[in-house]
Automatic annotation (TrEMBL):
It comes from the Bacteria. Pfam families: Toluene_X. It comes from Novosphingobium aureum. It is found in: Cell outer membrane. This is Outer membrane protein transport protein. Its main location: membrane. Residues 1-34 form the signal peptide. PANTHER family: OUTER MEMBRANE PROTEIN NMB0088-RELATED (PTHR35093).
Length: 428
Protein backbone atom coordinates (compact mmCIF):
# COMPACT_ATOMS: atom_id res chain seq x y z
CA UNK A 1 0.00 0.00 0.00
CA UNK A 2 1.36 3.49 -0.80
CA UNK A 3 2.78 5.23 2.25
CA UNK A 4 0.34 8.13 1.92
CA UNK A 5 -2.50 5.71 2.78
CA UNK A 6 -0.69 3.49 5.25
CA UNK A 7 -1.61 5.65 8.22
CA UNK A 8 -5.11 6.56 7.11
CA UNK A 9 -6.70 4.99 10.19
CA UNK A 10 -4.77 7.49 12.30
CA UNK A 11 -5.76 10.44 10.11
CA UNK A 12 -7.81 12.99 12.04
CA UNK A 13 -8.10 16.18 9.99
CA UNK A 14 -9.81 18.99 11.88
CA UNK A 15 -13.33 19.53 10.56
CA UNK A 16 -12.77 23.28 10.30
CA UNK A 17 -9.72 22.78 8.08
CA UNK A 18 -11.61 20.45 5.76
CA UNK A 19 -14.55 22.84 5.54
CA UNK A 20 -12.31 25.84 4.91
CA UNK A 21 -10.45 24.17 2.07
CA UNK A 22 -13.61 22.99 0.34
CA UNK A 23 -15.47 26.29 0.77
CA UNK A 24 -12.55 28.19 -0.74
CA UNK A 25 -12.44 25.86 -3.74
CA UNK A 26 -16.18 25.93 -4.37
CA UNK A 27 -16.43 29.69 -3.90
CA UNK A 28 -13.83 30.29 -6.60
CA UNK A 29 -15.67 28.12 -9.14
CA UNK A 30 -17.79 29.81 -11.82
CA UNK A 31 -21.45 28.99 -12.21
CA UNK A 32 -23.01 26.81 -14.85
CA UNK A 33 -26.36 25.27 -15.66
CA UNK A 34 -27.95 22.40 -13.80
CA UNK A 35 -30.38 19.73 -14.86
CA UNK A 36 -33.29 20.11 -12.41
CA UNK A 37 -34.25 23.64 -13.47
CA UNK A 38 -31.21 25.43 -12.07
CA UNK A 39 -30.61 22.88 -9.28
CA UNK A 40 -27.89 20.26 -9.63
CA UNK A 41 -29.00 16.76 -10.59
CA UNK A 42 -27.15 15.19 -7.67
CA UNK A 43 -24.45 15.58 -5.04
CA UNK A 44 -21.32 13.45 -5.09
CA UNK A 45 -19.74 11.49 -7.92
CA UNK A 46 -21.32 8.19 -6.93
CA UNK A 47 -24.88 9.53 -6.97
CA UNK A 48 -24.25 11.42 -10.21
CA UNK A 49 -23.13 8.19 -11.86
CA UNK A 50 -26.43 6.58 -10.83
CA UNK A 51 -28.72 9.24 -12.31
CA UNK A 52 -28.60 11.44 -9.20
CA UNK A 53 -30.38 8.88 -6.98
CA UNK A 54 -29.38 9.24 -3.31
CA UNK A 55 -32.32 10.03 -0.99
CA UNK A 56 -32.45 6.37 0.12
CA UNK A 57 -29.22 5.17 -1.52
CA UNK A 58 -26.32 7.01 0.18
CA UNK A 59 -22.90 6.09 -1.18
CA UNK A 60 -20.49 8.83 -0.12
CA UNK A 61 -20.31 11.79 2.26
CA UNK A 62 -21.95 14.19 -0.24
CA UNK A 63 -25.22 12.30 0.31
CA UNK A 64 -25.84 14.47 3.39
CA UNK A 65 -26.25 17.44 1.04
CA UNK A 66 -29.58 15.86 0.07
CA UNK A 67 -30.57 13.68 3.04
CA UNK A 68 -28.82 14.53 6.34
CA UNK A 69 -30.01 11.27 7.92
CA UNK A 70 -27.58 9.44 5.61
CA UNK A 71 -24.68 10.38 7.91
CA UNK A 72 -25.41 7.38 10.16
CA UNK A 73 -24.91 4.98 7.20
CA UNK A 74 -21.60 6.28 5.87
CA UNK A 75 -19.04 5.59 8.58
CA UNK A 76 -15.98 7.84 8.83
CA UNK A 77 -14.98 9.15 5.40
CA UNK A 78 -14.05 12.13 3.30
CA UNK A 79 -14.76 12.79 -0.40
CA UNK A 80 -13.46 15.56 -2.64
CA UNK A 81 -14.39 15.81 -6.30
CA UNK A 82 -14.91 17.99 -9.33
CA UNK A 83 -17.01 18.12 -12.46
CA UNK A 84 -16.19 19.55 -15.89
CA UNK A 85 -19.49 20.85 -17.20
CA UNK A 86 -20.20 21.89 -20.79
CA UNK A 87 -23.66 23.35 -21.50
CA UNK A 88 -24.88 24.17 -25.01
CA UNK A 89 -27.46 26.95 -24.76
CA UNK A 90 -28.97 29.56 -27.01
CA UNK A 91 -32.05 31.05 -28.65
CA UNK A 92 -33.75 31.71 -31.98
CA UNK A 93 -35.99 34.74 -32.49
CA UNK A 94 -38.32 34.96 -35.48
CA UNK A 95 -41.17 37.17 -36.66
CA UNK A 96 -40.12 40.17 -34.58
CA UNK A 97 -41.05 43.56 -35.99
CA UNK A 98 -38.31 45.41 -34.11
CA UNK A 99 -35.37 43.62 -35.73
CA UNK A 100 -34.51 40.94 -33.15
CA UNK A 101 -34.70 38.01 -35.58
CA UNK A 102 -31.71 35.69 -35.61
CA UNK A 103 -30.00 32.64 -34.16
CA UNK A 104 -28.00 33.37 -31.02
CA UNK A 105 -25.45 31.22 -29.21
CA UNK A 106 -25.13 31.64 -25.46
CA UNK A 107 -21.93 29.58 -25.32
CA UNK A 108 -19.47 32.44 -24.88
CA UNK A 109 -18.31 30.88 -21.59
CA UNK A 110 -17.37 27.17 -21.53
CA UNK A 111 -16.42 24.83 -19.91
CA UNK A 112 -17.04 25.11 -16.15
CA UNK A 113 -15.16 23.46 -13.27
CA UNK A 114 -17.46 22.58 -10.35
CA UNK A 115 -15.78 21.26 -7.17
CA UNK A 116 -17.48 19.72 -4.13
CA UNK A 117 -16.52 17.93 -0.95
CA UNK A 118 -17.83 16.30 2.18
CA UNK A 119 -16.84 14.70 5.46
CA UNK A 120 -18.76 12.46 7.91
CA UNK A 121 -17.78 10.93 11.22
CA UNK A 122 -19.62 8.83 13.82
CA UNK A 123 -19.35 10.15 17.37
CA UNK A 124 -20.76 6.96 18.85
CA UNK A 125 -23.06 4.11 17.81
CA UNK A 126 -26.06 6.44 17.51
CA UNK A 127 -24.81 9.90 16.52
CA UNK A 128 -22.89 11.00 13.44
CA UNK A 129 -21.80 14.45 12.30
CA UNK A 130 -20.54 15.82 9.02
CA UNK A 131 -20.33 18.69 6.60
CA UNK A 132 -20.92 18.99 2.86
CA UNK A 133 -19.96 21.93 0.67
CA UNK A 134 -21.23 21.91 -2.89
CA UNK A 135 -23.01 23.90 -5.54
CA UNK A 136 -26.77 23.97 -5.09
CA UNK A 137 -27.17 25.07 -8.69
CA UNK A 138 -26.56 27.87 -11.12
CA UNK A 139 -27.28 29.41 -14.46
CA UNK A 140 -24.96 30.95 -17.04
CA UNK A 141 -25.45 32.42 -20.50
CA UNK A 142 -22.96 34.51 -22.43
CA UNK A 143 -24.16 35.86 -25.78
CA UNK A 144 -21.26 37.52 -27.58
CA UNK A 145 -23.85 38.76 -30.09
CA UNK A 146 -26.51 40.49 -28.01
CA UNK A 147 -29.98 39.13 -28.91
CA UNK A 148 -31.50 42.48 -27.88
CA UNK A 149 -29.09 44.76 -29.76
CA UNK A 150 -31.92 46.02 -31.99
CA UNK A 151 -33.61 47.33 -28.84
CA UNK A 152 -30.44 49.12 -27.76
CA UNK A 153 -28.67 46.35 -25.86
CA UNK A 154 -24.91 46.95 -25.91
CA UNK A 155 -21.99 44.62 -25.39
CA UNK A 156 -22.37 40.93 -24.66
CA UNK A 157 -25.53 39.71 -22.91
CA UNK A 158 -26.17 37.07 -20.31
CA UNK A 159 -26.46 36.11 -16.68
CA UNK A 160 -24.23 34.31 -14.21
CA UNK A 161 -25.91 32.85 -11.11
CA UNK A 162 -24.07 30.63 -8.64
CA UNK A 163 -25.40 29.17 -5.40
CA UNK A 164 -23.03 27.49 -2.95
CA UNK A 165 -24.44 25.57 0.02
CA UNK A 166 -22.64 24.62 3.23
CA UNK A 167 -24.40 21.91 5.22
CA UNK A 168 -23.09 21.02 8.71
CA UNK A 169 -25.04 17.94 9.74
CA UNK A 170 -26.09 15.95 12.78
CA UNK A 171 -27.84 12.59 12.41
CA UNK A 172 -29.20 10.30 15.11
CA UNK A 173 -30.06 6.61 14.89
CA UNK A 174 -33.21 6.47 17.02
CA UNK A 175 -33.74 2.72 16.59
CA UNK A 176 -32.13 -0.09 14.67
CA UNK A 177 -32.09 0.96 11.03
CA UNK A 178 -34.04 4.20 11.67
CA UNK A 179 -32.30 7.57 11.49
CA UNK A 180 -33.20 11.25 11.42
CA UNK A 181 -30.90 14.11 10.51
CA UNK A 182 -30.82 17.88 10.39
CA UNK A 183 -28.61 20.38 8.58
CA UNK A 184 -28.65 24.15 8.98
CA UNK A 185 -27.98 25.19 5.37
CA UNK A 186 -25.91 28.28 4.62
CA UNK A 187 -26.36 29.48 1.04
CA UNK A 188 -23.92 31.95 -0.52
CA UNK A 189 -24.98 33.20 -3.93
CA UNK A 190 -23.60 35.52 -6.57
CA UNK A 191 -25.31 37.09 -9.57
CA UNK A 192 -24.39 39.22 -12.57
CA UNK A 193 -26.38 40.38 -15.61
CA UNK A 194 -25.07 42.10 -18.73
CA UNK A 195 -26.51 43.50 -21.94
CA UNK A 196 -30.11 43.97 -20.77
CA UNK A 197 -30.17 47.77 -21.06
CA UNK A 198 -33.43 47.96 -23.08
CA UNK A 199 -35.45 46.44 -20.23
CA UNK A 200 -34.13 48.90 -17.64
CA UNK A 201 -36.60 51.49 -18.94
CA UNK A 202 -39.36 49.33 -17.41
CA UNK A 203 -37.74 49.22 -13.97
CA UNK A 204 -38.47 51.16 -10.80
CA UNK A 205 -34.69 51.41 -10.31
CA UNK A 206 -33.06 51.47 -13.79
CA UNK A 207 -29.63 52.32 -12.39
CA UNK A 208 -29.51 48.92 -10.66
CA UNK A 209 -30.70 46.65 -13.43
CA UNK A 210 -27.80 45.45 -15.63
CA UNK A 211 -24.01 45.65 -16.01
CA UNK A 212 -23.42 46.24 -12.32
CA UNK A 213 -20.82 43.50 -11.81
CA UNK A 214 -21.22 40.53 -9.49
CA UNK A 215 -23.27 41.00 -6.34
CA UNK A 216 -23.29 38.56 -3.41
CA UNK A 217 -25.77 37.63 -0.72
CA UNK A 218 -26.17 34.91 1.92
CA UNK A 219 -28.91 33.28 3.95
CA UNK A 220 -29.65 30.30 6.21
CA UNK A 221 -32.33 27.63 5.99
CA UNK A 222 -32.79 24.08 7.25
CA UNK A 223 -32.81 20.61 5.71
CA UNK A 224 -34.47 17.67 7.49
CA UNK A 225 -34.04 14.03 6.55
CA UNK A 226 -35.19 10.49 7.35
CA UNK A 227 -33.58 7.19 6.36
CA UNK A 228 -34.96 3.80 7.32
CA UNK A 229 -33.82 0.23 6.66
CA UNK A 230 -36.45 -2.51 6.45
CA UNK A 231 -34.65 -5.81 6.58
CA UNK A 232 -31.30 -5.89 4.82
CA UNK A 233 -32.65 -5.24 1.31
CA UNK A 234 -34.95 -2.20 1.43
CA UNK A 235 -34.35 1.42 2.40
CA UNK A 236 -36.77 4.35 2.42
CA UNK A 237 -35.76 8.00 2.70
CA UNK A 238 -37.26 11.47 2.66
CA UNK A 239 -36.07 15.06 2.95
CA UNK A 240 -37.40 18.60 3.20
CA UNK A 241 -35.40 21.77 2.58
CA UNK A 242 -36.95 25.07 3.60
CA UNK A 243 -37.18 28.16 1.44
CA UNK A 244 -34.10 30.29 2.10
CA UNK A 245 -34.19 34.09 2.08
CA UNK A 246 -30.69 35.50 1.48
CA UNK A 247 -30.06 39.21 1.59
CA UNK A 248 -31.05 41.22 -1.47
CA UNK A 249 -28.90 41.80 -4.52
CA UNK A 250 -28.64 45.57 -4.09
CA UNK A 251 -26.83 45.99 -7.42
CA UNK A 252 -29.85 44.38 -9.11
CA UNK A 253 -32.61 45.95 -7.01
CA UNK A 254 -34.24 47.19 -10.22
CA UNK A 255 -34.26 43.75 -11.84
CA UNK A 256 -35.58 41.27 -9.30
CA UNK A 257 -38.96 41.66 -7.62
CA UNK A 258 -39.08 42.99 -4.06
CA UNK A 259 -36.09 45.26 -4.62
CA UNK A 260 -33.50 42.63 -5.52
CA UNK A 261 -34.78 39.65 -3.55
CA UNK A 262 -33.71 36.23 -4.91
CA UNK A 263 -34.78 33.43 -2.57
CA UNK A 264 -33.80 29.77 -2.84
CA UNK A 265 -36.99 27.75 -3.38
CA UNK A 266 -38.17 25.06 -1.01
CA UNK A 267 -37.70 21.45 -2.11
CA UNK A 268 -38.80 18.08 -0.78
CA UNK A 269 -38.76 14.48 -1.88
CA UNK A 270 -38.67 10.76 -1.10
CA UNK A 271 -36.64 7.80 -2.25
CA UNK A 272 -36.53 4.00 -2.27
CA UNK A 273 -33.67 1.56 -2.74
CA UNK A 274 -33.80 -2.24 -2.98
CA UNK A 275 -31.11 -4.91 -3.16
CA UNK A 276 -32.55 -7.80 -5.19
CA UNK A 277 -29.12 -9.46 -5.47
CA UNK A 278 -26.11 -9.25 -3.13
CA UNK A 279 -24.13 -7.32 -5.76
CA UNK A 280 -26.96 -5.17 -7.16
CA UNK A 281 -28.78 -2.17 -5.66
CA UNK A 282 -31.57 -0.32 -7.48
CA UNK A 283 -32.92 3.06 -6.42
CA UNK A 284 -35.52 5.67 -7.32
CA UNK A 285 -36.04 9.28 -6.16
CA UNK A 286 -38.84 11.80 -6.46
CA UNK A 287 -38.25 15.51 -5.81
CA UNK A 288 -40.46 18.62 -5.97
CA UNK A 289 -38.88 22.07 -6.40
CA UNK A 290 -41.16 25.05 -5.72
CA UNK A 291 -39.78 27.65 -8.13
CA UNK A 292 -43.11 29.46 -8.48
CA UNK A 293 -43.01 30.59 -4.83
CA UNK A 294 -39.94 32.77 -5.49
CA UNK A 295 -41.10 36.02 -7.08
CA UNK A 296 -37.86 36.68 -8.98
CA UNK A 297 -38.08 33.26 -10.59
CA UNK A 298 -41.81 32.50 -10.71
CA UNK A 299 -43.55 35.79 -11.55
CA UNK A 300 -44.71 36.20 -15.14
CA UNK A 301 -43.58 38.99 -17.44
CA UNK A 302 -47.32 39.68 -17.84
CA UNK A 303 -47.23 41.62 -14.55
CA UNK A 304 -45.25 44.31 -16.39
CA UNK A 305 -48.31 45.03 -18.53
CA UNK A 306 -50.47 45.13 -15.43
CA UNK A 307 -48.55 48.17 -14.23
CA UNK A 308 -45.93 46.55 -11.96
CA UNK A 309 -42.34 47.45 -12.96
CA UNK A 310 -39.23 45.32 -12.70
CA UNK A 311 -37.94 45.45 -9.14
CA UNK A 312 -41.36 46.09 -7.62
CA UNK A 313 -43.23 43.81 -5.24
CA UNK A 314 -45.01 41.40 -7.57
CA UNK A 315 -42.88 42.61 -10.49
CA UNK A 316 -41.86 40.56 -13.52
CA UNK A 317 -39.72 37.45 -13.22
CA UNK A 318 -38.83 34.52 -15.43
CA UNK A 319 -42.22 32.83 -15.15
CA UNK A 320 -40.89 29.46 -13.97
CA UNK A 321 -43.28 26.75 -12.82
CA UNK A 322 -42.75 24.20 -10.04
CA UNK A 323 -41.12 21.00 -11.29
CA UNK A 324 -41.39 17.31 -10.46
CA UNK A 325 -38.14 15.36 -10.79
CA UNK A 326 -37.88 11.56 -11.12
CA UNK A 327 -34.63 9.59 -11.03
CA UNK A 328 -33.76 5.90 -11.29
CA UNK A 329 -30.36 4.29 -10.96
CA UNK A 330 -28.50 1.07 -10.38
CA UNK A 331 -25.25 0.13 -8.63
CA UNK A 332 -23.53 -3.18 -9.45
CA UNK A 333 -20.51 -4.43 -7.51
CA UNK A 334 -18.62 -6.29 -10.21
CA UNK A 335 -15.76 -7.21 -7.85
CA UNK A 336 -14.16 -6.13 -4.60
CA UNK A 337 -12.26 -3.49 -6.55
CA UNK A 338 -14.82 -2.37 -9.16
CA UNK A 339 -18.35 -0.95 -8.85
CA UNK A 340 -20.42 0.09 -11.88
CA UNK A 341 -23.33 2.55 -12.06
CA UNK A 342 -25.95 3.79 -14.51
CA UNK A 343 -29.04 5.97 -14.25
CA UNK A 344 -31.58 8.29 -15.77
CA UNK A 345 -33.27 11.44 -14.50
CA UNK A 346 -36.32 13.28 -15.81
CA UNK A 347 -37.45 16.78 -14.84
CA UNK A 348 -40.44 18.85 -15.83
CA UNK A 349 -39.65 21.88 -17.96
CA UNK A 350 -40.01 24.97 -15.75
CA UNK A 351 -40.30 27.47 -18.65
CA UNK A 352 -43.79 27.96 -20.17
CA UNK A 353 -43.98 28.67 -23.90
CA UNK A 354 -45.32 32.17 -23.21
CA UNK A 355 -42.31 33.10 -21.02
CA UNK A 356 -39.40 32.39 -23.35
CA UNK A 357 -38.40 36.01 -24.11
CA UNK A 358 -36.74 36.69 -20.75
CA UNK A 359 -35.60 33.07 -20.59
CA UNK A 360 -33.25 33.77 -23.47
CA UNK A 361 -31.10 34.77 -20.47
CA UNK A 362 -31.94 31.62 -18.45
CA UNK A 363 -32.93 28.64 -20.64
CA UNK A 364 -33.01 25.96 -17.93
CA UNK A 365 -35.15 23.66 -20.07
CA UNK A 366 -33.42 20.25 -20.27
CA UNK A 367 -35.72 17.43 -19.21
CA UNK A 368 -33.76 14.18 -19.27
CA UNK A 369 -30.21 13.15 -18.41
CA UNK A 370 -28.38 9.82 -18.81
CA UNK A 371 -25.42 8.80 -16.65
CA UNK A 372 -22.73 6.14 -16.35
CA UNK A 373 -20.17 5.80 -13.57
CA UNK A 374 -17.64 3.54 -11.89
CA UNK A 375 -15.58 3.33 -8.71
CA UNK A 376 -12.16 1.67 -8.54
CA UNK A 377 -10.83 0.77 -5.08
CA UNK A 378 -7.03 0.96 -5.27
CA UNK A 379 -6.20 0.60 -1.56
CA UNK A 380 -7.93 -0.74 1.53
CA UNK A 381 -9.21 2.71 2.41
CA UNK A 382 -8.95 4.68 -0.85
CA UNK A 383 -10.99 4.80 -4.05
CA UNK A 384 -11.52 6.92 -7.14
CA UNK A 385 -14.91 7.45 -8.78
CA UNK A 386 -15.70 8.77 -12.23
CA UNK A 387 -18.89 9.46 -14.16
CA UNK A 388 -20.26 10.93 -17.37
CA UNK A 389 -23.60 12.68 -17.92
CA UNK A 390 -25.44 13.66 -21.07
CA UNK A 391 -28.64 15.70 -21.24
CA UNK A 392 -29.88 15.82 -24.86
CA UNK A 393 -30.95 19.14 -26.35
CA UNK A 394 -34.40 20.32 -25.33
CA UNK A 395 -36.07 23.25 -27.12
CA UNK A 396 -39.02 25.24 -25.86
CA UNK A 397 -40.74 27.00 -28.75
CA UNK A 398 -42.33 30.31 -27.85
CA UNK A 399 -46.08 30.83 -28.15
CA UNK A 400 -47.15 34.45 -27.68
CA UNK A 401 -43.76 34.90 -26.07
CA UNK A 402 -42.71 38.38 -27.27
CA UNK A 403 -45.33 41.02 -26.38
CA UNK A 404 -46.55 43.37 -29.09
CA UNK A 405 -44.90 46.26 -27.22
CA UNK A 406 -41.55 44.58 -27.99
CA UNK A 407 -42.36 43.89 -31.65
CA UNK A 408 -44.12 40.52 -31.32
CA UNK A 409 -42.85 37.27 -32.80
CA UNK A 410 -41.48 34.27 -30.96
CA UNK A 411 -38.37 33.38 -28.98
CA UNK A 412 -37.32 29.72 -28.92
CA UNK A 413 -34.77 28.68 -26.28
CA UNK A 414 -32.71 25.52 -26.04
CA UNK A 415 -30.26 23.74 -23.76
CA UNK A 416 -28.15 20.56 -23.85
CA UNK A 417 -25.51 19.47 -21.33
CA UNK A 418 -22.48 17.21 -21.10
CA UNK A 419 -20.45 16.57 -17.96
CA UNK A 420 -17.61 14.39 -16.75
CA UNK A 421 -16.54 14.20 -13.15
CA UNK A 422 -14.23 12.48 -10.71
CA UNK A 423 -13.88 12.21 -6.97
CA UNK A 424 -11.41 10.80 -4.49
CA UNK A 425 -12.78 8.99 -1.43
CA UNK A 426 -10.95 8.06 1.73
CA UNK A 427 -12.22 5.85 4.55
CA UNK A 428 -10.72 7.17 7.77
Amino acid sequence: MPQVFAGAERLRLPLAAIAGAIVTTVALAPAAHATDGYFLNGSGAKAKGAGGVEIAMPQDSLAIAVNPAAATELGHRMDVGFEIFVPDRGARIAGNGAGLDGNYSGNGANPFLLPEGGYVRPLNESVSVGIAINGNGGMNTHYKTNPFAAFGGTGSAGVNLSQIQVSPTVAVKVAKGQSFGVSPVLVIQGFEMTGAQPFAAYSQDPANFTNRGTDWSAGIGVRLGYLGSFGDKVKLGAFYQSKIKPGRFDKYAGLFAQGGSFDVPAAWGAGLSVRPLPALTLGADYKRIEYSNVQAVGNSIATLFQGVPFGGDGGPGFGWRDVDVWKVGGVYRASEALTLRAGYGHSDNPVPRGETMLNVFAPGVVRGHYTLGATVKFADNAEVTGYVMRAPRQTVRGAGSIPAAFGGGEADVYLAETAVGMSFGLTL
